[in-house]
């Protein structure tokens, strides 16, 4: 008989035995011990427990036990509690749309009873004693062969103890696949600790049976961040920033703790809770990861704890057998809000760290930085309403605070460079410190912690600088090697094989403008002794400028500055005494103080050229006036030799190094002003020599 002769007939359809159906269904809900634990924790939380203790043997395969102090199970419900589709939490299908409990299907305990030996001891607060019941395949069974299957009264605390033993004893293939008990315990710990972090009103412990110490031990009422610290350690918890947002219209809100840019971790950690359910939500995860790709150093991954609450009617919780997934209305809008919120938070906290933007220098040699959105930024931007200004929304990727003198921009895989900016107070250390001249007195720049600046106006001005930065120029200045002075205005510097002439006096304006903004509220202090009179100085300036009534002009200057002296003291370390003297100035670059001959003009301009009415315009114009005060002025030819020596020492060891190590985003205008000119490139020289 050939194969062709075999007639393939349909096999008769039969109804599966209930036990088979139940075991298959159970397998969909309980894949491994950690799934069972999740269900049991949720039941305890639904029962209002304020304390949950978990004990585990052999990764939960041998014993998985959970004890809570919740409301317990009614004795009369014990016979049916492990049957499929029995629940105290849902009556009508419609109730699902407003469900406030984790459970609603009445399947979890049934599933566990189909794949393990399950026992429940439970006591309600008003019962005289506890009852213990044993289950197999959803039904009550005797605890010992030949005994009664009815729940037995026993001693016990209020609440419920559930013990699942020999998990998957009746599904060999599953049991064999779960041999790595360490791995299973890790997963159990992960589930327990995540619920512990999210439910700060409940104390959690998790331990291996027989172990003297619990691996997880959170306290009732401890804050979320305390719990995160307990589970993930201080290093991670200290690097987190808090986020919060509420959308009245959608009735959605979220809060959480997410990595700041200073965070370095090689594995992403997502604790994502939607209406208190621990879920995987790929679109949210992808969007956040994408955002962080452009923010964190290469290879570093984010930590995200997000507690998202949405109107229950807008959430579909019934989309996955293990409830690991949910769907909700207005996903795109809410995800965009999450991304925006994290993004803004990072922007507002980044001043205390370093900034960096990835760019592709080789492809676009002289383009400015704002053309170089990373993928993540593009994605984040695509989620935002299109009407927003993308440039101003550029994420400033942040790097951990490195020593600004030693960290050169890193080369990226793509062959581009990363530009980073140290926002730290200038700490140029190279070389001998110039001896301060006698009449100047310095106070050291503020030690850590830096003051964190949250003023949107300052952040916007910094972003403006970032947008105007020239990638190649920034890199040259960041990595240059000082060769020597040409004169008191110009120096030769080398970058790779090229030699440049730098007009450091012209450049110093940009540098000081930059430092004034980035070290805002973190300056050192230059104490003026003896403190000069503002009125006298303003009179000098007014006269020099040909003001018809210098006396009145000086009065105005003094009044204007005295009226704003609190602001000047707080933001700029500019102190004005009751007697009208100026006692101190900000020290913007260490050991460098401006030419005091410029003080009269500075005071005059501060009063007259600064817009005191609009916050952002004020900071912009005041920074401009301040930077102008600090601009390097070469010594006069009849100045004493030691003044000239000091000047060059300051330029070589303080001013020029403060541009290095990614501390300065150089604007394109430096090129326009011819402040940096390339003199020669080594390969060109070779060619000349070859011809000779
Ligand atoms: N720890 C507990 N304390 C008090 N009651 C409990 C506890 N665990 C389970 N129950 C009761 O047993 C019932 C069945 O639990 P089970 O987890 O099987 O279903 P559910 O929670 O209602 O729904 P789901 O299958 O979606 O979890 C619950 O509805 C609840 O009334
Ligand atoms: Mg349940």
From TrEMBL:
GO BP: any one term: mismatch repair
Name assigned to this protein: DNA mismatch repair protein MutL
GO cellular component: MutLalpha complex
Keyword Nucleus: yes
GO MF annotations in UniProt: ATP binding; ATP hydrolysis activity; ATP-dependent DNA damage sensor activity; mismatched DNA binding
Bias type Polar residues, positions: 358-369
Subcellular location(s) of the protein: Nucleus
Family the entry assigns: Belongs to the DNA mismatch repair MutL/HexB family.
InterPro entries: DNA_mismatch_repair_CS (IPR014762), DNA_mismatch_S5_2-like (IPR013507), HATPase_C_sf (IPR036890), Mlh1_C (IPR032189), MutL/Mlh/PMS (IPR002099), MutL/Mlh/Pms-like (IPR038973), Ribosomal_Su5_D2-typ_SF (IPR020568), Ribsml_uS5_D2-typ_fold_subgr (IPR014721)
Organism whose genome encodes this protein: Coemansia reversa (strain ATCC 12441 / NRRL 1564)
Coiled coil ranges: none
Main location: nucleus
CDD domains: HATPase_MutL-MLH-PMS-like
Chain ranges of the DNA mismatch repair protein S5 domain: 228-347
Positions of region (Disordered): 358-392, 424-446
Keywords: DNA damage, DNA repair, Nucleus
């Amino acid at each position: 008989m050939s194969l062709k002769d075999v007639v393939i007939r349909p096999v008769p359809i039969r109804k599966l035995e209930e036990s088979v159906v139940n075991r298959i269904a159970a397998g969909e809900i309980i894949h491994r011990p950690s799934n069972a634990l999740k269900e049991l924790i949720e039941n305890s939380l639904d029962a209002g427990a304020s304390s949950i203790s978990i004990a585990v043997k052999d990764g939960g395969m041998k014993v998985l036990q959970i004890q809570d102090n919740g409301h317990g199970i009614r004795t009369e419900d014990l016979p049916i509690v492990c049957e499929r589709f029995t629940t105290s939490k849902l009556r009508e299908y419609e109730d699902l749309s407003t469900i406030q409990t984790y459970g609603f299907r009445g399947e979890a305990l049934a599933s566990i009873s189909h794949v393990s030996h399950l026992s429940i001891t439970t006591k309600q607060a008003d019962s005289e004693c506890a009852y213990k019941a044993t289950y197999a395949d959803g039904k009550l069974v005797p605890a010992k062969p030949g005994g009664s299957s009815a729940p037995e009264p026993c001693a016990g605390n209020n609440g419920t103890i559930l013990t699942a033993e020999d998990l998957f004893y009746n599904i060999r293939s599953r049991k064999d696949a779960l041999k790595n008990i360490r791995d299973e315990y890790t997963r159990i710990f992960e589930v327990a600790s995540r619920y512990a972090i999210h439910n700060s009103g409940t104390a959690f412990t998790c331990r291996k049976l027989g172990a003297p110490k619990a691996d997880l031990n959170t306290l009732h009422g401890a804050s979320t961040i305390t719990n995160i610290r307990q589970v993930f350690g201080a290093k991670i918890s200290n690097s987190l920033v808090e986020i919060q947002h509420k959308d009245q219209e959608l009735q959605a809100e979220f809060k959480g703790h997410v990595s700041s840019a200073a965070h370095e971790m090689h594995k992403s950690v997502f604790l994502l809770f939607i209406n208190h359910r621990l879920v995987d939500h790929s679109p949210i995860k992808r969007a956040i990861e994408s955002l962080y790709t452009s923010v964190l150093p290469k290879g570093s991954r984010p930590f995200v704890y997000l507690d998202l609450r949405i109107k229950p009617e807008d959430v579909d919780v019934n989309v996955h057998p293990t409830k690991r997934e949910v769907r909700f209305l207005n996903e795109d809008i809410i995800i965009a809000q999450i991304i925006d919120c994290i993004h803004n938070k990072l922007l507002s906290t980044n001043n205390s760290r370093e900034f960096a933007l990835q760019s592709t220098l080789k492809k676009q040699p002289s383009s400015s930085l704002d053309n170089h959105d990373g993928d993540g930024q593009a994605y984040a931007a695509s989620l935002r309403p299109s009407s927003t200004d993308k440039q101003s929304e550029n994420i400033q990727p942040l790097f951990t605070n490195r020593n600004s003198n030693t960290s050169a921009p890193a080369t990226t895989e793509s062959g581009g460079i990363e530009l980073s900016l140290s926002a730290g107070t200038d700490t140029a250390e190279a070389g001998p410190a110039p001896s301060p001249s006698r009449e100047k007195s310095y106070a050291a720049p503020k030690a850590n912690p830096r003051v964190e600046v949250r003023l949107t106006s300052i952040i916007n001005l910094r972003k403006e600088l970032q947008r105007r930065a020239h990638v190649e120029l920034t890199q040259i200045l960041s990595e240059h090697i000082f060769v020597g002075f040409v004169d008191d205005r110009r120096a030769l510097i080398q970058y790779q094989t090229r030699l440049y002439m730098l007009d450091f006096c012209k450049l110093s304006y940009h540098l000081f403008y930059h430092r004034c903004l980035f070290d805002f509220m973190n300056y050192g202090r230059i104490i003026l002794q003896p403190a000069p009179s503002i009125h006298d100085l303003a009179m000098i300036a007014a006269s020099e400028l040909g003001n018809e009534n210098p006396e009145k002009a000086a009065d105005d200057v003094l009044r204007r500055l005295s009226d704003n002296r609190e602001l000047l003291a707080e933001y700029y370390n500019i102190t004005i005494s009751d007697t009208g003297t100026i006692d101190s100035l900000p020290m913007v670059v260490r050991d460098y103080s401006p030419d005091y001959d410029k003080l009269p003009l500075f005071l005059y301009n501060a009063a007259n050229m600064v817009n005191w009415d609009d916050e952002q315009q004020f900071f912009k114009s005041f920074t401009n006036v301040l930077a102008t005060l600090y601009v390097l002025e070469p010594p006069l030819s009849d100045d004493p030799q030691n003044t000239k020596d000091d000047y060059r020492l300051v330029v070589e060891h303080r001013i020029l190094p403060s541009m290095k190590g990614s501390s300065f985003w150089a604007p394109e205008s430096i090129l326009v002003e011819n402040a940096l000119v390339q003199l020669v490139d080594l390969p060109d020289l070779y060619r000349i020599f070859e011809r000779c």
